[in-house]
Design goal:
The chain is α/β, with parallel strands linked by helices. The protein is built from 15 helices and 5 strands. Helix 5 packs across helix 6, helix 10 packs antiparallel against helix 15 and helix 14 runs antiparallel to helix 15.
Length: 338
């Protein structure tokens, strides 16, 4: 979009890669004088209102940009679809407008999870300007590597995986901020695991795999201390935090059992990780963890976590955090001490 004539009458911008979505909006806004840009939310204005806004013209006689956010609503919870966006009548009004848009106005429609076969998307497709920025569910590590590349820094794959482990997969803004911080520090030098460990503070101060490391090393005191720290720093109650931690540990033992069976077949750690669809960094770590436990111990841990799940769902009178701590002591005990 280097020339004014390259601008389209309308753009639909959506997708899970919110940093890229916001970058696209910033670039579009930079093409207009500030007084000619209007930003409204679909939660507050109707489709007909937006049509009137687009057709009203500019007091300054310049080209105008109308940005409408939240066209498919907002998310109240991270893992639930957005709610509160435009209704059918609103979409129909805008679709009708797009058939004959105002000549000096650019309309930018911004959503979270707009489908490519939605009516509004089909209308924008007819003028050839759909901007969908998605991050694959299992593509966070590749996304981090690409962001580093855009910052002019080469990052090792394991370093990218570790950064995702530290910050989490859901908050791309937090990941993008950390990438910018690391890239600024690196001054063009390559980034490895050591640099990430030195420069990045894990969310809540505890790396996600710190618990599993302590468990694999059978360091019960360390394991319980980490567990207590997570409880204290969590913004949720102990009752709500315990099931999340239990699920993490149960998932880890499930992967360890699979990896141990592959190890018995002399499958190398990296190959075993790839066979299970795991990133090599996480897979090789779990592979090493599994080496410290027998098949019987891992099977017993699976049973113990099933008992914990029942207890956390009302099968015990003990507090949730106490039940979790009891389970951690049991699964991390030396052989013959349970």
């Amino acid at each position: 979009m280097s020339e004014k004539s390259a601008l389209k009458p309308a753009y639909l911008i959506s997708g899970s890669d919110r940093p890229k979505v916001e970058q696209a909006i910033r670039r579009l806004r930079a093409r207009f004088v500030a007084e000619s840009v209007e930003i409204v939310s679909a939660l507050e204005v109707t489709g007909p209102d937006v049509v009137n806004l687009c057709n009203s013209g500019s007091l300054f006689g310049d080209a105008r940009l109308v940005v409408v956010t939240d066209i498919d609503g907002r998310k109240k919870e991270e893992h639930r679809p957005p709610t509160g966006g435009w209704k059918t009548a609103d979409v129909q009004a805008v679709v009708a407008y797009l058939a004959a848009p105002a000549p000096d106005t650019v309309l930018a429609l911004v959503g979270l999870e707009v489908k490519k076969d939605a009516a509004i998307a089909k209308a924008c497709a007819r003028i050839d300007k759909l901007l969908f920025y998605e991050v694959a569910k299992h593509g966070r590590v590749a996304w981090v590597a690409e962001r580093f590349r855009q910052e002019g820094v080469k990052a090792e794959t394991d370093a990218c995986a570790l950064l995702v482990q530290y910050i989490g997969e859901t908050d791309l803004h937090a990941l993008a901020n950390e990438i910018t911080k690391i890239a600024t520090w690196a001054q063009g030098e390559p980034i490895g695991v050591t640099e990430v460990e030195q420069l990045v503070t894990p969310v809540a101060g505890i790396a996600p795999f710190a618990l599993t490391d302590a468990w694999a090393e059978r360091r019960q005191g360390r394991l319980l201390d980490l567990c207590e720290t997570i409880f204290e720093r969590s913004d949720k109650s102990r009752r709500d935090t315990a099931p999340r931690l239990a699920a993490t540990l149960n998932g880890h033992v499930s992967r360890m059992r699979q990896l141990k069976r592959l190890a018995d077949d002399r499958v190398a750690a990296r190959d075993a990780a790839l066979a299970l669809g795991m990133h090599p960094f996480a897979g090789e770590k779990a592979y090493r963890h599994a080496e410290g436990f027998s098949h019987v111990e891992l099977a017993s841990a699976t049973v113990r976590f099933a008992e914990l799940d029942l207890a956390l769902k009302g099968g015990s009178r003990l507090a949730a955090d106490v039940e979790l701590q009891r389970a951690l002591i049991a699964v991390s005990a030396e052989p013959g001490q349970t």
